[in-house]
Amino acid sequence: MIAPGSTIGIIGGGQLGRMLAVAAAQLGYKCHVLDPDRDGPAAQVSARFTRAAYDDVEALRAFGESIDVATYEFENLPVGPLEVLGDKLRPSTRSLAIAQDRAREKAFIEECGARVASWRAIASEQDAEAAVAELGLPIVLKTRRYGYDGKGQAWIRPAEECAAAWRAIGEEPAVAESGVEFLAEFSVIVARWADGRHTFWDSPENEHGAGILRRSTVPCGDAVALQVAEAREAAIAIAEALDHIGVLTVEFFASRDGPVVNEIAPRVHNSGHWTIEGAVTSQFEQHIRAICDLPPGPTDLAGGGAVMDNLIGDEVNRWPELIAEPGLHVHIYGKGEARPGRKMGHVTKVIA
Ligand code: ADP
Ligand code: MG
To answer: Atom 18, ligand 1: which residue's CA is nearest?
Structure first.
Protein backbone atom coordinates (compact mmCIF):
# COMPACT_ATOMS: atom_id res chain seq x y z
CA MET A 1 0.00 0.00 0.00
CA ILE A 2 1.16 3.50 -0.75
CA ALA A 3 0.11 5.52 2.26
CA PRO A 4 -1.11 9.12 2.42
CA GLY A 5 1.91 11.41 2.68
CA SER A 6 3.57 9.62 -0.25
CA THR A 7 4.16 11.28 -3.61
CA ILE A 8 2.24 10.37 -6.76
CA GLY A 9 3.82 11.15 -10.11
CA ILE A 10 1.48 12.27 -12.88
CA ILE A 11 2.75 12.19 -16.47
CA GLY A 12 0.82 14.73 -18.50
CA GLY A 13 -0.27 18.07 -17.14
CA GLY A 14 -3.77 18.65 -18.52
CA GLN A 15 -7.17 18.83 -16.86
CA LEU A 16 -7.29 15.10 -16.09
CA GLY A 17 -4.02 15.44 -14.19
CA ARG A 18 -5.40 18.48 -12.40
CA MET A 19 -8.49 16.64 -11.19
CA LEU A 20 -6.37 13.61 -10.19
CA ALA A 21 -4.06 15.90 -8.20
CA VAL A 22 -6.98 17.55 -6.39
CA ALA A 23 -8.39 14.11 -5.44
CA ALA A 24 -4.92 12.93 -4.34
CA ALA A 25 -4.42 16.05 -2.20
CA GLN A 26 -7.71 15.41 -0.40
CA LEU A 27 -6.38 11.97 0.60
CA GLY A 28 -3.12 13.48 1.85
CA TYR A 29 -0.82 12.71 -1.10
CA LYS A 30 1.55 15.08 -2.83
CA CYS A 31 1.73 15.13 -6.61
CA HIS A 32 4.69 15.63 -8.92
CA VAL A 33 3.67 16.48 -12.49
CA LEU A 34 5.85 15.94 -15.56
CA ASP A 35 4.87 17.77 -18.74
CA PRO A 36 6.74 19.51 -21.58
CA ASP A 37 4.65 22.67 -21.14
CA ARG A 38 5.10 25.22 -18.39
CA ASP A 39 2.42 25.89 -15.79
CA GLY A 40 -0.38 23.73 -17.16
CA PRO A 41 -3.67 22.81 -15.46
CA ALA A 42 -2.16 20.01 -13.30
CA ALA A 43 1.07 21.79 -12.31
CA GLN A 44 -0.96 24.71 -10.94
CA VAL A 45 -2.40 22.48 -8.19
CA SER A 46 0.55 20.16 -7.51
CA ALA A 47 3.44 20.22 -5.06
CA ARG A 48 6.13 19.63 -7.69
CA PHE A 49 6.55 20.09 -11.40
CA THR A 50 9.19 18.91 -13.84
CA ARG A 51 9.22 20.46 -17.25
CA ALA A 52 10.61 17.80 -19.57
CA ALA A 53 9.91 16.12 -22.87
CA TYR A 54 8.09 12.79 -22.56
CA ASP A 55 11.05 10.99 -24.13
CA ASP A 56 13.69 12.55 -21.85
CA VAL A 57 14.89 9.36 -20.18
CA GLU A 58 17.19 11.14 -17.71
CA ALA A 59 14.35 13.42 -16.58
CA LEU A 60 12.02 10.42 -16.29
CA ARG A 61 14.63 8.56 -14.23
CA ALA A 62 14.99 11.47 -11.78
CA PHE A 63 11.20 11.85 -11.70
CA GLY A 64 10.90 8.11 -10.92
CA GLU A 65 13.27 8.48 -7.97
CA SER A 66 11.22 11.36 -6.55
CA ILE A 67 7.86 9.53 -6.51
CA ASP A 68 6.35 6.43 -4.86
CA VAL A 69 3.94 5.55 -7.67
CA ALA A 70 3.34 7.10 -11.10
CA THR A 71 0.39 7.27 -13.45
CA TYR A 72 -0.40 8.93 -16.78
CA GLU A 73 -3.30 11.12 -17.78
CA PHE A 74 -2.55 11.19 -21.50
CA GLU A 75 -2.12 8.33 -23.96
CA ASN A 76 0.10 9.82 -26.62
CA LEU A 77 3.33 9.12 -24.76
CA PRO A 78 6.30 7.27 -26.21
CA VAL A 79 6.25 3.93 -24.38
CA GLY A 80 9.96 3.01 -24.39
CA PRO A 81 11.25 5.83 -22.14
CA LEU A 82 8.56 5.07 -19.53
CA GLU A 83 10.14 1.67 -18.89
CA VAL A 84 12.62 3.42 -16.54
CA LEU A 85 9.72 3.78 -14.09
CA GLY A 86 9.44 -0.02 -13.83
CA ASP A 87 6.73 -1.32 -11.48
CA LYS A 88 6.07 2.16 -10.15
CA LEU A 89 3.98 2.93 -13.26
CA ARG A 90 0.27 2.11 -12.89
CA PRO A 91 -1.38 1.30 -15.22
CA SER A 92 1.59 -0.36 -16.92
CA THR A 93 2.95 0.49 -20.35
CA ARG A 94 0.98 -2.47 -21.79
CA SER A 95 -2.35 -0.63 -21.38
CA LEU A 96 -0.78 2.45 -22.94
CA ALA A 97 0.84 0.67 -25.90
CA ILE A 98 -2.42 -0.99 -26.90
CA ALA A 99 -4.69 2.01 -26.39
CA GLN A 100 -2.46 4.40 -28.35
CA ASP A 101 -2.56 2.45 -31.62
CA ARG A 102 -6.06 2.08 -33.07
CA ALA A 103 -5.16 -1.03 -35.08
CA ARG A 104 -3.62 -2.88 -32.11
CA GLU A 105 -6.49 -1.67 -29.95
CA LYS A 106 -9.19 -3.06 -32.25
CA ALA A 107 -7.42 -6.40 -32.72
CA PHE A 108 -6.99 -6.66 -28.94
CA ILE A 109 -10.66 -5.85 -28.26
CA GLU A 110 -11.71 -8.55 -30.73
CA GLU A 111 -9.38 -11.04 -29.01
CA CYS A 112 -11.16 -10.20 -25.76
CA GLY A 113 -14.42 -11.35 -27.38
CA ALA A 114 -15.99 -7.89 -27.76
CA ARG A 115 -17.61 -6.42 -30.86
CA VAL A 116 -16.01 -3.57 -32.87
CA ALA A 117 -17.12 -1.98 -36.16
CA SER A 118 -15.78 -3.80 -39.25
CA TRP A 119 -12.32 -2.41 -39.91
CA ARG A 120 -9.09 -2.70 -41.87
CA ALA A 121 -5.60 -1.37 -41.19
CA ILE A 122 -4.55 0.85 -44.11
CA ALA A 123 -1.29 2.46 -45.18
CA SER A 124 -2.05 3.89 -48.64
CA GLU A 125 -4.82 5.37 -50.74
CA GLN A 126 -5.13 2.00 -52.52
CA ASP A 127 -5.70 0.31 -49.13
CA ALA A 128 -8.41 2.87 -48.38
CA GLU A 129 -10.11 2.10 -51.72
CA ALA A 130 -9.91 -1.62 -51.02
CA ALA A 131 -11.47 -1.07 -47.59
CA VAL A 132 -14.34 0.86 -49.20
CA ALA A 133 -14.88 -2.00 -51.66
CA GLU A 134 -14.82 -4.64 -48.90
CA LEU A 135 -16.67 -2.88 -46.08
CA GLY A 136 -19.11 -0.63 -47.97
CA LEU A 137 -20.01 2.94 -47.06
CA PRO A 138 -19.98 5.08 -45.03
CA ILE A 139 -16.45 4.63 -43.69
CA VAL A 140 -14.36 6.74 -41.36
CA LEU A 141 -10.57 6.88 -41.63
CA LYS A 142 -8.75 7.41 -38.32
CA THR A 143 -5.00 7.74 -37.92
CA ARG A 144 -3.61 4.85 -35.88
CA ARG A 145 -1.91 7.28 -33.51
CA TYR A 146 -2.29 10.74 -31.97
CA GLY A 147 -6.00 11.25 -32.65
CA TYR A 148 -8.22 12.86 -30.00
CA ASP A 149 -11.41 14.93 -29.92
CA GLY A 150 -12.18 13.81 -33.48
CA LYS A 151 -8.79 14.97 -34.80
CA GLY A 152 -7.06 12.74 -37.35
CA GLN A 153 -10.39 11.51 -38.73
CA ALA A 154 -12.15 11.89 -42.09
CA TRP A 155 -15.38 10.38 -43.38
CA ILE A 156 -15.92 8.79 -46.77
CA ARG A 157 -19.61 8.89 -47.69
CA PRO A 158 -19.59 8.68 -51.50
CA ALA A 159 -16.61 6.62 -52.71
CA GLU A 160 -15.25 9.65 -54.62
CA GLU A 161 -14.26 11.17 -51.24
CA CYS A 162 -11.70 8.44 -50.67
CA ALA A 163 -8.65 10.33 -51.99
CA ALA A 164 -9.62 13.54 -50.18
CA ALA A 165 -10.14 11.64 -46.90
CA TRP A 166 -6.74 9.96 -47.21
CA ARG A 167 -5.14 13.40 -47.71
CA ALA A 168 -7.20 14.93 -44.89
CA ILE A 169 -5.73 12.50 -42.34
CA GLY A 170 -2.23 13.39 -43.50
CA GLU A 171 -1.57 10.14 -45.43
CA GLU A 172 -0.66 8.47 -42.14
CA PRO A 173 -1.04 4.79 -41.23
CA ALA A 174 -4.69 4.49 -40.27
CA VAL A 175 -7.69 2.29 -39.73
CA ALA A 176 -10.71 2.36 -42.02
CA GLU A 177 -13.85 1.49 -40.10
CA SER A 178 -17.51 1.18 -40.96
CA GLY A 179 -19.81 3.95 -39.81
CA VAL A 180 -22.02 2.60 -37.03
CA GLU A 181 -25.69 3.58 -37.08
CA PHE A 182 -25.89 3.92 -33.34
CA LEU A 183 -28.98 4.45 -31.18
CA ALA A 184 -26.79 6.28 -28.67
CA GLU A 185 -23.22 6.46 -27.39
CA PHE A 186 -22.22 5.52 -23.86
CA SER A 187 -19.21 4.52 -21.82
CA VAL A 188 -18.30 1.97 -19.20
CA ILE A 189 -15.86 3.30 -16.63
CA VAL A 190 -14.23 0.64 -14.51
CA ALA A 191 -11.60 0.89 -11.79
CA ARG A 192 -9.51 -2.24 -11.28
CA TRP A 193 -7.13 -3.20 -8.48
CA ALA A 194 -4.00 -5.33 -8.86
CA ASP A 195 -5.77 -8.29 -7.21
CA GLY A 196 -8.67 -8.14 -9.69
CA ARG A 197 -11.21 -6.32 -7.53
CA HIS A 198 -13.11 -3.80 -9.61
CA THR A 199 -15.92 -1.27 -9.46
CA PHE A 200 -18.14 0.32 -12.11
CA TRP A 201 -20.09 3.56 -12.15
CA ASP A 202 -23.49 3.97 -13.74
CA SER A 203 -22.88 4.27 -17.47
CA PRO A 204 -23.26 7.79 -18.84
CA GLU A 205 -24.94 8.38 -22.19
CA ASN A 206 -22.61 10.61 -24.22
CA GLU A 207 -23.42 13.16 -26.90
CA HIS A 208 -20.69 14.39 -29.25
CA GLY A 209 -20.56 17.34 -31.62
CA ALA A 210 -17.84 17.51 -34.29
CA GLY A 211 -16.06 14.58 -32.61
CA ILE A 212 -15.88 16.29 -29.19
CA LEU A 213 -17.84 15.19 -26.12
CA ARG A 214 -20.51 17.79 -25.38
CA ARG A 215 -22.67 16.20 -22.70
CA SER A 216 -22.76 13.12 -20.47
CA THR A 217 -26.02 12.17 -18.75
CA VAL A 218 -26.66 9.70 -15.93
CA PRO A 219 -28.85 7.73 -15.76
CA CYS A 220 -28.65 6.73 -19.41
CA GLY A 221 -31.74 6.22 -21.59
CA ASP A 222 -33.52 2.88 -22.04
CA ALA A 223 -31.74 1.88 -25.26
CA VAL A 224 -28.36 2.13 -23.50
CA ALA A 225 -29.59 0.64 -20.21
CA LEU A 226 -30.48 -2.61 -22.01
CA GLN A 227 -26.87 -2.95 -23.22
CA VAL A 228 -24.92 -2.01 -20.09
CA ALA A 229 -24.63 -5.55 -18.65
CA GLU A 230 -23.07 -6.92 -21.85
CA ALA A 231 -20.85 -3.84 -22.20
CA ARG A 232 -19.57 -4.28 -18.64
CA GLU A 233 -18.61 -7.87 -19.40
CA ALA A 234 -16.63 -6.64 -22.39
CA ALA A 235 -14.99 -3.86 -20.35
CA ILE A 236 -13.86 -6.12 -17.54
CA ALA A 237 -12.59 -8.73 -20.02
CA ILE A 238 -10.46 -5.97 -21.58
CA ALA A 239 -9.25 -4.73 -18.17
CA GLU A 240 -8.34 -8.28 -17.11
CA ALA A 241 -6.51 -9.01 -20.35
CA LEU A 242 -4.49 -5.81 -19.88
CA ASP A 243 -3.93 -6.59 -16.19
CA HIS A 244 -4.95 -2.97 -15.85
CA ILE A 245 -4.51 -1.13 -12.55
CA GLY A 246 -6.56 2.04 -12.11
CA VAL A 247 -9.43 3.48 -14.13
CA LEU A 248 -10.11 2.21 -17.65
CA THR A 249 -12.80 3.70 -19.87
CA VAL A 250 -14.45 1.87 -22.75
CA GLU A 251 -16.49 3.95 -25.20
CA PHE A 252 -19.42 2.16 -26.85
CA PHE A 253 -22.02 2.60 -29.54
CA ALA A 254 -25.40 1.16 -28.58
CA SER A 255 -26.32 -0.46 -31.91
CA ARG A 256 -29.30 -2.60 -32.93
CA ASP A 257 -26.99 -5.61 -32.69
CA GLY A 258 -25.82 -4.76 -29.16
CA PRO A 259 -22.89 -2.83 -27.74
CA VAL A 260 -20.04 -2.07 -30.17
CA VAL A 261 -16.73 -0.92 -28.67
CA ASN A 262 -15.54 2.35 -30.23
CA GLU A 263 -12.28 2.83 -28.34
CA ILE A 264 -10.64 2.44 -24.95
CA ALA A 265 -8.82 4.97 -22.80
CA PRO A 266 -6.42 3.60 -20.15
CA ARG A 267 -7.34 6.41 -17.77
CA VAL A 268 -9.99 8.60 -16.22
CA HIS A 269 -12.27 10.04 -18.88
CA ASN A 270 -14.24 13.15 -19.75
CA SER A 271 -17.47 11.10 -19.64
CA GLY A 272 -16.73 10.39 -15.95
CA HIS A 273 -16.37 14.00 -14.79
CA TRP A 274 -19.93 13.88 -13.44
CA THR A 275 -18.71 11.42 -10.76
CA ILE A 276 -16.99 14.27 -8.86
CA GLU A 277 -20.32 15.50 -7.50
CA GLY A 278 -22.70 12.85 -8.88
CA ALA A 279 -21.20 9.72 -7.29
CA VAL A 280 -20.13 8.82 -3.75
CA THR A 281 -16.55 8.26 -4.96
CA SER A 282 -15.29 10.07 -8.06
CA GLN A 283 -13.33 8.44 -10.87
CA PHE A 284 -10.32 10.54 -9.82
CA GLU A 285 -10.36 9.43 -6.17
CA GLN A 286 -10.96 5.81 -7.22
CA HIS A 287 -7.99 5.91 -9.59
CA ILE A 288 -5.78 7.16 -6.74
CA ARG A 289 -7.20 4.47 -4.43
CA ALA A 290 -6.53 1.75 -7.03
CA ILE A 291 -2.95 2.76 -7.88
CA CYS A 292 -2.12 3.21 -4.17
CA ASP A 293 -3.88 -0.05 -3.25
CA LEU A 294 -6.29 1.60 -0.81
CA PRO A 295 -9.72 -0.05 -0.49
CA PRO A 296 -12.27 0.73 -3.25
CA GLY A 297 -14.77 3.49 -2.51
CA PRO A 298 -18.50 3.03 -3.17
CA THR A 299 -19.55 4.17 -6.63
CA ASP A 300 -23.30 4.63 -6.06
CA LEU A 301 -25.00 7.77 -7.28
CA ALA A 302 -24.86 10.60 -4.75
CA GLY A 303 -28.28 11.85 -5.94
CA GLY A 304 -30.66 10.84 -8.68
CA GLY A 305 -28.15 11.28 -11.49
CA ALA A 306 -26.17 14.06 -13.14
CA VAL A 307 -25.71 16.03 -16.34
CA MET A 308 -22.20 17.20 -17.28
CA ASP A 309 -21.65 19.76 -20.04
CA ASN A 310 -18.22 20.61 -21.40
CA LEU A 311 -17.18 24.25 -21.77
CA ILE A 312 -15.42 24.30 -25.11
CA GLY A 313 -13.49 27.29 -26.46
CA ASP A 314 -15.06 30.63 -25.61
CA GLU A 315 -18.00 28.97 -23.82
CA VAL A 316 -15.83 29.29 -20.72
CA ASN A 317 -16.40 33.04 -20.90
CA ARG A 318 -19.94 32.34 -19.68
CA TRP A 319 -18.49 31.59 -16.23
CA PRO A 320 -20.01 34.64 -14.45
CA GLU A 321 -23.51 33.50 -15.37
CA LEU A 322 -22.77 29.81 -14.68
CA ILE A 323 -21.18 30.43 -11.30
CA ALA A 324 -24.26 32.39 -10.24
CA GLU A 325 -26.54 29.42 -10.95
CA PRO A 326 -27.43 27.69 -7.66
CA GLY A 327 -26.29 24.06 -7.49
CA LEU A 328 -24.32 24.16 -10.74
CA HIS A 329 -20.78 22.86 -10.13
CA VAL A 330 -18.36 24.88 -12.24
CA HIS A 331 -14.91 23.51 -13.09
CA ILE A 332 -12.40 25.74 -14.89
CA TYR A 333 -9.14 24.12 -15.92
CA GLY A 334 -6.79 27.07 -15.73
CA LYS A 335 -5.72 26.89 -19.38
CA GLY A 336 -4.52 29.98 -21.15
CA GLU A 337 -6.16 30.87 -24.40
CA ALA A 338 -9.74 29.71 -25.13
CA ARG A 339 -8.98 28.39 -28.60
CA PRO A 340 -11.89 26.93 -30.63
CA GLY A 341 -12.38 23.23 -29.84
CA ARG A 342 -10.26 23.39 -26.67
CA LYS A 343 -11.74 21.87 -23.51
CA MET A 344 -11.60 24.78 -21.05
CA GLY A 345 -13.86 23.50 -18.26
CA HIS A 346 -17.11 21.73 -17.51
CA VAL A 347 -20.26 22.14 -15.44
CA THR A 348 -22.18 19.43 -13.59
CA LYS A 349 -25.73 19.53 -12.32
CA VAL A 350 -26.67 16.78 -9.88
CA ILE A 351 -30.27 15.68 -10.37
CA ALA A 352 -32.22 15.45 -7.10
P1 ADP B 1 -11.51 10.34 -30.40
O2 ADP B 1 -10.26 9.63 -30.05
O3 ADP B 1 -11.28 11.62 -31.09
O4 ADP B 1 -12.48 10.41 -29.24
P5 ADP B 1 -13.44 8.48 -31.56
O6 ADP B 1 -13.05 7.30 -32.35
O7 ADP B 1 -14.02 8.25 -30.22
O8 ADP B 1 -12.17 9.42 -31.51
O9 ADP B 1 -14.46 9.33 -32.44
C10 ADP B 1 -15.08 10.51 -31.96
C11 ADP B 1 -16.57 10.46 -32.24
O12 ADP B 1 -16.83 10.35 -33.65
C13 ADP B 1 -17.30 9.27 -31.64
O14 ADP B 1 -17.60 9.48 -30.26
C15 ADP B 1 -18.53 9.21 -32.52
O16 ADP B 1 -19.47 10.23 -32.17
C17 ADP B 1 -17.96 9.52 -33.89
N18 ADP B 1 -17.53 8.25 -34.53
C19 ADP B 1 -16.28 7.73 -34.52
N20 ADP B 1 -16.23 6.55 -35.15
C21 ADP B 1 -17.48 6.29 -35.60
C22 ADP B 1 -18.08 5.20 -36.32
N23 ADP B 1 -17.38 4.15 -36.74
N24 ADP B 1 -19.42 5.27 -36.56
C25 ADP B 1 -20.14 6.33 -36.14
N26 ADP B 1 -19.64 7.37 -35.46
C27 ADP B 1 -18.32 7.37 -35.18
MG1 MG C 1 -13.55 8.89 -28.33
So the answer is: 211
Ligand sitting nearest the alpha carbon of 206? 1
Check if the beta carbon of residue 156 is closer than 8 Å to that of residue 137. yes
Which of 262, 269, 271 to mutate to test ligand 1, by most ligand atoms within 8 A of the CB atom? 262
At residue 38, the pLDDT reads 83
* 138 close to ligand 1 (CB < 6 Angstrom): no
Within 10 angstroms of residue 321's Cβ, the number of other Cβ atoms is: 9
From the list 19, 41, 34, the residue with the least C-alpha distance to 72 is 34
| pLDDT tens for each residue of 60-91 | 999 999 999 999 999 999 999 999 999 999 99
Tell me the per-residue pLDDT of 123-179, one tens digit each, with 9 for 90 and over: 999 999 999 999 999 999 999 999 988 899 999 999 999 999 999 999 999 999 999
- Asked if residue 208 has its Cβ within 6 Å of ligand 1, the reply is yes
**pTM as predicted:** 0.98
- In angstroms, what is the span from residue 252 Cα to ligand 2's centroid? 9
Ligand 1 within 6 A of CB of 117: yes
**Which residues contact residue 333 at a Cβ distance below 8 angstroms, ignoring those fewer than 6 apart?**
14, 15, 18, 41, 343, 344, 345
First to last CA, the chain: 36
pLDDT in tens, 207-243: 999 999 999 999 999 999 999 999 999 999 999 999 9
Sheet with 48-51, strands from edge to edge, namely: 48-51, 30-35, 7-11, 69-72
CA nearest ligand 1 atom 11, residue:
211
For residue 140 and ligand 1, the question of a CB distance below 6 A is answered with: yes
